[in-house]
Specification:
Blueprint lengths: L1 E7 L4 H12 L4 E7 L4 E6 L6 H10 L3 E3 L1
Antiparallel strand pairs: 1-3, 1-4, 2-3
Amino acid sequence: MKCELEVTGMRCGGCELLVKEALGELDGVESVEASHASGRVSLEFDPSKMSLEKIKAVLGEQGFSVIE
């Protein structure tokens, strides 16, 4: 499943890397791209292994907020 999230709190390339590493470690997440310039995170994941709610929770744990 592919999705794009609007995320606040990313301010630099380091934030992008943090998002990529945190989400990339999750079982079922296949790809992650993050852009602090656009405030967007694009990802592809297997919904049988990972939920969108868990992805949002992990982003929150890293200090970022998903705009619903």
